[in-house]
Amino acid sequence: MSPASVAHAARRLRGAAVVGVAGVALFALRDRIPDPHAVWASVRGVNPGWLAVAVVAEGLSMRLFAGLLRRLLRSGGVRLTRPRSVAVTYARNAVSSSLPAGPVLSAAFTIRELGRLGASKPLSVATLVLSAVYSTATFAVLGLVALLGGDATRGPALIALGAVAAAAVAVVRLRRRPGGHRSCASPRILAARDALRPAGGDRLVLAVLALANWLMDVACLAAVCAAAGVALGPHTVLLGYVAGKVAATVAVIPGGLGVTELGMAATFVGAGVTGSMAVAVVALYRLISYWAVLAVGWVAWLLLHDGVRARLAAPGRWLLGLVGHHEDEAGVRPAR
Question: Domain segments of the chain: what residues?
Answer without folding.
Answer: 32-158+194-304, 307-336
